[in-house]
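REVIEWER CHECKLIST
Item 1: Sequence provided? yes
Item 2: Single chain? yes
Item 3: Sequence as submitted:
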Amino acid sequence: MPFSVVHRDGSSKARLGVVRTSHGAFDTPAFMPVGSRAAVKMIAPRVLDELGAQIVLSNTYHLMVRPGVDVVERLGGLHRFMAWDKPIVTDSGGFQVFSLAGLRAIADEGVTFQSHIDGTRLFLGPREAMAIQRQLGSDIAMAFDECPASTADRATIASAVKRTLAWARLCIEDAARHDSGQLVFGIVQGGVHDDLRRSCADELVSMPFHGYAVGGLAVGEASEEMYRVAALCCDRLPEDKPRYLMGVGTPEDILHAVMRGIDMFDCVLPTRNGRNGSAFTDTGDVPVKGGRFKDHDAPVQAGCDCYTCRTFSRAYIRHLFNVGEALGCQLLTIHNLHFYLGLMRDIRQAARDDRLDAFARGFIEKRKSGVDVGVSE
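Item 4: Structure as written out by the authors:
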């Protein structure tokens, strides 16, 4: 089996697991840095490895647009192309059905996009998405789905569920026909409607996917709604297969979801916030590019052992942002990914010790405190 549960936390529904792929195994719960265009922004693969990343995420749609999937295949596949020899999961392009809503038309056969780069017409359907992911050579391929906003009307979401299930059947048939060695995950849709989520999950479970994702969250709904839907889906999905909450999220979101049984996460927040001058710390988020740090000699986070905090002051990083030096973005991205990947290690250890509930409460309360130990009052 590609997934095994090695321990269940005694204080929550969290579980420790291992996912085995053709490019090695990774531990769960896992956070996957986002490298949509075959690069995690501002971070070299060597640095990702040093930070402890075990798996990254890339994107079918973006690589189809540039440089073109044939280019990646000719150059040895995605792993060689981006010099990353550990597992890669590829999003099928289903999220772009949501994010590029103004540039696409949906039909039962698939989605016609108007390229956000040059306006070229592009078609992506379930068979096309699977074929592209095979050419890329990712370890985990996602089924093609329709991802509506969670705030869309019920009829729109019900239609998306119907289409997602039809496409899932085509994806799993296509994967079985080619037997590429990729793991294939189905995606549960249904917005915040419990009955739609249940019916979608139940139908997907009847198909032989290697794992299951919960999609269509963190797209407009309240956090408590997200946690409720994640828990509902976990209760319907198999115990012996990994569960992936797509596009989530904040450190608090990840903790809440792990405690409800989610195993895998991806999110752009650590890299995007780093490029925008904001650092995640254990006492809240710090806007390092703010003027109050002009003369501040403290590190981004006291006690942090990442390269950024061991080496540079807030004043220096703020200076880099102030003069437009890209190094500032890189240094905060390093810190933020170190924070996220370190959080996942702490989560796994707390679950191993059957104390995740206590760890989560302490972590969230400390983050709420906003006590910046690096600032003298």
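Item 5: Key structural point noted by reviewer: The chain has two domains: 3-267, 277-369.
Item 6: Recommendation: ____
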